[in-house]
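=== Structure Prediction Worksheet ===
Name of assembly: unnamed complex
Input type: mixed (protein and possibly other molecules)
Chain count: two
Listed entries:
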Amino acid sequence: MTLTGQSLVAGQWLGQGEHGEFHAFSPAQNTPLATRFFNIGAVELTAAVNAAQDAFLEYRKTTYAQRADFLDCIATHILALGDNLLEQTQLETNLPFARLQGERMRTVNQLKAFANALRENPESPLGLKLVDEADPTRAPMAKPHTELNYLPLGPVAVFGASNFPYAFSTLGGDTAAALAAGCPVIVKNHTAHPGTGELMARAVLAAIKECAMPLGVFAMVQSKAYDISHQLVAAPQIKAVGFTGSFNVASMLQDTIAKREEPIPFYGELGSINPQIILPNKASKEAKGIAQSLCQSMLMGNGQFCTSPGLWLVPTGCDELETEVADNICRSVSDTLLTPGIVNTFKHQINQRVELADVSLLGKGMLEQDFHANAHVFACSADSYLTTPQLHEEVFGPAALIVRYDSEQQLMMVINQLEGQLTASIHGTDNDLTQAEPIIEALQYKVGRLIKNQMPTGVEVCGSMNHGGPFPSSTDIRSTSVGTNAMLRFMRPICYQA
Amino acid sequence: MTLTGQSLVAGQWLGQGEHGEFHAFSPAQNTPLATRFFNIGAVELTAAVNAAQDAFLEYRKTTYAQRADFLDCIATHILALGDNLLEQTQLETNLPFARLQGERMRTVNQLKAFANALRENPESPLGLKLVDEADPTRAPMAKPHTELNYLPLGPVAVFGASNFPYAFSTLGGDTAAALAAGCPVIVKNHTAHPGTGELMARAVLAAIKECAMPLGVFAMVQSKAYDISHQLVAAPQIKAVGFTGSFNVASMLQDTIAKREEPIPFYGELGSINPQIILPNKASKEAKGIAQSLCQSMLMGNGQFCTSPGLWLVPTGCDELETEVADNICRSVSDTLLTPGIVNTFKHQINQRVELADVSLLGKGMLEQDFHANAHVFACSADSYLTTPQLHEEVFGPAALIVRYDSEQQLMMVINQLEGQLTASIHGTDNDLTQAEPIIEALQYKVGRLIKNQMPTGVEVCGSMNHGGPFPSSTDIRSTSVGTNAMLRFMRPICYQA
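=== Predicted Assembly ===
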């Protein structure tokens, strides 16, 4: 499928390279790909923002049923891209075909879930409308009729993730939620999979035309220049920002957003080490099973899931568990990561850990190619963990740290020192869990999702899901990026009084 | 009732003047009051913050029923202060006794409304819990059991308003909502009514003891030094800020908050001119009635309500309406405003308007004392309004501006140029309202509450209320400061998965 390398602005494909260009990269071949992608210019970005604002005046008037049809239509056009989409994404990410098929289905289902939610409650988001009836006889003042409903915020800027090229990217959760809410979207496409972004934008454009939506309701801009991102979030017409990516990029965008005259929500999803707490009885009774599950969950997507378990809290002396971990890790085979930059950072962090005196390397996987990342599991005592801030950092890729605790008290100290996390799991027998109630009480204040006896990878798309957690895992703890409640992050209440 | 002039920190009354002192002011006498209030020091404020964090570890575990009892108990102790409270507040604010009685009742009812909401839904705030059942048979992956609920954010800083010494101040909406949510509160008391704040703090302390709540769950600090406010919102333990006050103070606090490592919600309620749109048929058929209602609403509390109607959009040529307005305003009697600073600003703004070439003074009230503020109503054409940004500013006090529009198109231009507002009202006959549908559609995006044929003053405390609006009327459009939904501003979602 021929790619233009251009940006989609108000239904037009723009960009000829006058503002520079970039190439995608093949992680599998460790070489740049041939297609040129053209940086969008400041003038064209302004046009996209203006078109989004114009489109908002129309799009906000659409009925929930019309929006639902539009979302379904986008889903249909994603599927109509067929294997071309999967092949392009595999080229750009080296993620396995089956994984990409699964993620595409999840992305399509996400659009449909919002569509269904809109149809089920055609008068207010998720049926949240509240009415208080008038009482003209009330003394000393008559009671008015008041009705609480929700309005879309306005045009939304979305920054896609590298690690989920479908589900958290161009047409991922934030885009689907914003369109469901009645907000136009401008996506700054991730430069690691620009071709995927272009194909996805084609799917939306086809749906826009089929559903006769305003052309400015969706734009996709390509650029490797940071100033474009900052121009986008600084634009007065933009009323919210969705972001999935690194802490550093998020901080820079947040600084720009803080300088705006009008404060707007910034929904940044950053990083998380997703602690796994193995309680004593579980650790001794199911040592092998737990060890295998931990390794399997961590190795999923070569450790590049936002919910990848990076910290395993295990009672001191669980030799069987640790041996099984070491065996599993040593048998694991290396693979590429999403970008060469991610591989470099991973290797740098691994080397740092190797050099730490109080940390031992429990096992590492086979390294098949120099440009691959192979799995590493380290281990240290809780005392070392508590006194070594470097060990609290996320290592993005196939790595985990076993922290051995001697007592419930020491476990509590580690939990109290944790930064905010997307998720944590607590693995225990019924007895364990009863005894660990104070641990669980404390742990819930550190996470957005608290899991019992399950691995954190695999985020269910449903009404009761919450994806997002205390800072620094998210920049706004009050909102989920997954599940139908996510549309509320792009809406706000209004009271109608009569 | 003897006042200590001190701050309440972890159950102790602190401060002897070692960090400076200040006096309250009698607006009625135009002189400072005798009682000395002692600025709290940085060390004592840190103690309050630490005590709030310690208290959070206990308070967050209380059941909803326990919190409800605590709120009811606070309400009881407010009433137990008796007329002493009303007298102290009248001394400090010169608000009429009957008005203060009403506001006290509203404040007490607000606490009880949260208490009732907690009792009605003892398992999740306002019954928002969502459950998705497990499905172990689902292919390819078993579906987990997930349950969405809400946790309190942590210690909250509250900055009270000058204009509602009860309902939006020490024990006002934000404090009640935060305590209902499970969050300890540190109130920076408003320096215009410090004695009122001290009495209110006594009521909470009595309730804390009676209900055996942790002492750090509520602190009230007195200070005229700005750095104390900044220290408070910068403290890492503080997880949200509620503020009612001026744009300038809010901007400074927002800057400090933006420098925090962890972003936190800042719920600032700033200013609003609350536009009143009088449609043609209504203006001609009910000229006198509308004019009287507008004047009455604007004069309420001498123009110091946050929902005071400051901009009246009236069809050109409504002589009867304008004459009636002029008559009402000219008959009105001056009174003090809440502080000498507010009087000065008011007079300065009035003088600026008087000097504008395109603006005429329709009428002004009698000025009984030099230090009073008397009502002023100005008038200008829509063209002048559109081209004179100075006229878009809020004048806090008894002032309004009539803007005469020639056509629906011109009315739409004015609405499109409006900044965000807490409220707007549209006054029309059924015919008017049908014809004005595009106006109403546009207007709702400018306001937090859209009112038909009623005045904006008087905010109903109920589940479907929304108080807060687009910037600059509020700094966070996603949340209400009035009504039971307000407790959600101090909570955040969590998913429990098993």
